[in-house]
């Protein structure tokens, strides 16, 4: 009898612990505080938004003094999105996430074709159409297949000293996140 009672108590404790972990992991999606929702709150889609260096209410903020960040959310349901930026002032990286904040793709200045950002994100069907008749404008573009049509991109660049701040901000300000309709 004591063993049955001990087994029931242990099973209850393990079940309660698993339930609490599940609730904690699911909480951001229920509260609207998940990364995708917070990126959407920055403004309309298909535009890079540079994050401020200080936290302002519910806005996303760039809290690393040596890194400058811009974010863009997009929807490739009807057409692909093209992400472009010139050569950065030094190290830069671009990461693409789906709406569940799972990283789908990443690239940096050392792995890009010519040191600049040139990425096309599209659905499987859209990429198939594009590859059948690849426009010359996409000959050096890196294509990324998205399973989820909703997503966001995070563009980061280093500014390790005050003298890099202006060029880092200019790099992010020149970044483009735009629908691609030439297919």
Describe the structure.
The structure is a single chain. With 183 residues, the protein is of the alpha+beta class. The protein is 30% helix and 28% strand. A 5-stranded antiparallel beta sheet has the order 1-2-8-4-5. The longest helix is centred in the first third of the chain and has 30 residues, at 2-31. The termini are far apart. The mean pLDDT is 88.
- As residue ranges, the low-confidence spans are none
Oligomer: single chain
Beta content comes to: 25-35%
Q: Which H/E pattern describes the elements?
A: HHEEEEEEHEEHE
Mind summarizing the main beta sheet? Answer: 5 strands, antiparallel
Read across the widest sheet, the strand sequence of neighbours is: 1-2-8-4-5
What would the average pLDDT be, to the nearest integer?
Answer: 88
Structural class of the secondary elements? alpha+beta
Question: Residue share in helices?
Answer: 25-40%
Number of helical stretches of at least 4 residues: 4
- Radius of gyration from the alpha-carbon trace, in angstroms: 21 Å
What is the tally of beta strands? 9
- What distance lies between the first and last C-alpha atoms, to the nearest angstrom? 72 Å
Give the overall silhouette.
globular
């Amino acid at each position: 009898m004591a063993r049955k009672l001990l087994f029931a108590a242990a099973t209850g404790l393990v079940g309660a612990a698993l339930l609490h972990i599940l609730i904690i992991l699911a909480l951001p999606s229920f509260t609207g505080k998940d990364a995708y929702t917070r990126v959407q709150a920055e403004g309309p889609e298909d535009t890079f938004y540079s994050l401020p260096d200080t936290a302002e209410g519910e806005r996303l903020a760039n809290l690393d003094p040596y890194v400058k960040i811009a974010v863009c959310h997009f929807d490739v349901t009807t057409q692909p999105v093209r992400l472009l930026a010139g050569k950065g002032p030094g190290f830069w990286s671009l990461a693409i996430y789906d709406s569940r904040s799972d990283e789908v793709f990443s690239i940096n200045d050392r792995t890009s074709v010519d040191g600049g950002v040139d990425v096309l994100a599209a659905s499987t069907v859209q990429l198939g159409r594009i590859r059948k008749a690849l426009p010359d404008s996409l000959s050096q573009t890196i294509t990324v297949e998205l399973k989820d049509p909703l997503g966001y991109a995070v563009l980061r660049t280093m500014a390790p000293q005050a003298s890099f701040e202006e060029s880092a901000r200019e790099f992010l300000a020149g970044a483009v996140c735009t629908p691609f309709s030439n297919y």
